[in-house]
Amino acid sequence: RKSIPRCRRINRMLSNESLQSPAFSRSNSQASVDSASMEDFWREIESIKETSLGAQEEQTPAEAKPLDEGELEAEWLQDVGLSTLISGDEEEDGKALLSTLTRTQAAAVKKRYNTYTQTLRKKNKQSVRDVRDIFGTSESPPGDTCDSHASELDGAREGKALPGIIKASGPLPDGASLNSSTLSDGSQDEEWSFTVPRSGSMSILEAIPDVPVHSNGAADPGRSARNAASDDEYLEKNIPVEAEELSFEVSYSEKLTQAPKRNRFKKLDFKKEDYVLPKFVVQKTRFGLTKAEDLSAEDMKKIRHLSLIELTAFFDAFRIQLKRNKTEKVKGRDSGIFGVPLTVLLENDRRKDSGVKVPLVLQKFFEKVEESGLESEGIFRLSGCTAKVKQYREELDAKFNADKFKWEKMCHREAAVMLKAFFRELPTSLFPVEYIPAFITLMERGPHIRVQFQALHLMVMALPDANRDTAQALMTFFNKVIANESKNRMSIWNISTVMAPNLFFSRSKHSDCEELLLANTAAHIIRLMLKYQEMLWTVPSFLISQVRRMNEATMLLKKPLPSVKKLLRRKTIERGVTSPKTSKVLQKSPSTRRMSDVPEGVIRVHAPLLSKVSMAIQLNGQTKVKDILAKFQCENSHGSSECIKIQNQSLYEIGGNIGQHCLDPDAYILDVYHVNPQAEWVIKP
């Protein structure tokens, strides 16, 4: 009863013409949908407040000291893997990351580093490096538009041009040091060439062979892989007329700087009902699509760093500050189930199963609801029996890790209630609630849903592994609930509005108007996640290309510069005057042996778990990953068990400029080979 006056007050605010939905224009039918859906939202808020009264003593928010702008930017630099800019240490990973940034990404890093250094100078804490010591200070060539982009992104016209793009090739000069001052600004053009600083020091990536590169980072030597097929032939076919194509090959922020401002801020007008989101289809190239779970943990860490930089540059293009305002945090528990950080839960679960990516207790909640609750009307609107919920919570905290909790006595209603409580009581919300103000501003300006999708895509890629994997499992589960909407009355709108306060919770106090904006934005973000789940967990190709370049740069930085003695020996070898000792060294060289054993365009695929453990395969422009798997299936088709084995296995690209990459069955293997000729090819689960 207490929640009814608040619901009515908020619904009156919703019907006010001055508070229209920030994401798109409204209609009379949409107003009624919002009114009904948001009433669920505020009832959920009141229910949360009532049920959390008894738990307030356990979950006391830690007093967060307000951070100044410089400290916030310092945290941002640490979060994107550039802590070396603060500490001054020389690390290969930080240098490699700087060397692969696009122009807009480099401008975003410069802006944050400038703010950090200016704040420190004001405080007179310590002497700091100038931003020009990191990115270089070369002059731009005539007609370069990089200056206008940088000034727009920085929000201030200082009249300084970003370093120009100069083609560079050839080895590093003798005695050249690879410290931070030799790094270029990291800007790169369409052909991945890098800047040479004005001081005369060379870019760290100059030693990489100057090979033409496709827009998605794939080596493209003379388009040999495409002679048999035009560009249009390897794009996704049979796209519905009403669907819009999305490309993951070019940086989102770079696209925005190239688009006219009138198109950037163009509002979306739906011809159908407002609550029908547009259909998107991902443009599929010859490299196929890559899911987050297809990459190694080390490469996904680099994807997270790049995604946060790209997300910041993306909002900079709209002149929206992506402020990392600190929210109140609750100190997590070390044991039990509720109020325990995801990482701690997964650490405990991996003692039972090393491959667990989603907490086992959460998987059990999913199973209980799926058993008998998918068709239950209002499954996530019901509060369940309070006494039973409290009893089950206590028993789960005490008995779950010891496998002594009896799940058969729990009803699907109590499971749904505890699922919401599980996310609500996490020490930090599943999704970064501190980014909500930036999303509110973006939606108030009314860009196309495609732009909102791109911002959300980068946010998902920037999530920690535990949060990203858990969120993916959660959205998969909710889509199962929505599939039974005709019986359970839980539409995508109902799920979004009910779950928004549990997934994007804020312990700070807000006015009714602020809560309304937070509610609309959080619910809209969840709608987008549910609608575009498959695409949001696909890694953009341009980020994978940057990771490859980072790995190449890291290998170069770790490789010691040749001594004078080695250079003289190489000179002798080139003249054909080789000693027996030198010849023996050459015979033992892995790269020389690989080149002699495996001809160009031929790969050796290993399948250690199959009876046919190895096979040399000649590649052509039409060879796909699924063709190689089919060959192994043909060779290992002697028994039914072997057929089952090969059906559950995939082809992996391992080593070279990638850690581990599970390839899309529709990917053209010759294109991948040209990008990473040093990789090993393995078939495994």
From TrEMBL:
Residues 11-37, 49-68, 168-194, 212-231 are annotated as: Disordered. Coiled coil: none annotated. InterPro entries: RHG40/28/18_ubiquitin (IPR057323), Rho_GTPase_activation_prot (IPR008936), RhoGAP_dom (IPR000198). Pfam families: RhoGAP (PF00620), Ubiquitin_RHG40_C (PF25442). PROSITE patterns: RHOGAP. The keyword Manganese does not apply. Residues 340-537 form the Rho-GAP domain. SUPFAM superfamilies: GTPase activation domain, GAP. One of its GO terms (biological process) is regulation of small GTPase mediated signal transduction. Residues 13-35, 177-186 have a biased composition (Polar residues). SMART domains: RhoGAP. GO terms for cellular component: cytoplasm. GO terms for molecular function: GTPase activator activity. CDD domains: RhoGAP_ARHGAP18. Keywords: GTPase activation. GTPase activator for the Rho-type GTPases by converting them to an inactive GDP-bound state. PANTHER family: RHO GTPASE ACTIVATING PROTEIN 18,19-RELATED (PTHR14963), RHO GTPASE-ACTIVATING PROTEIN 28 (PTHR14963:SF5). This is Rho GTPase-activating protein 28. It comes from Bos mutus (wild yak). The lineage of its organism: Eukaryota, Metazoa, Chordata, Craniata, Vertebrata.
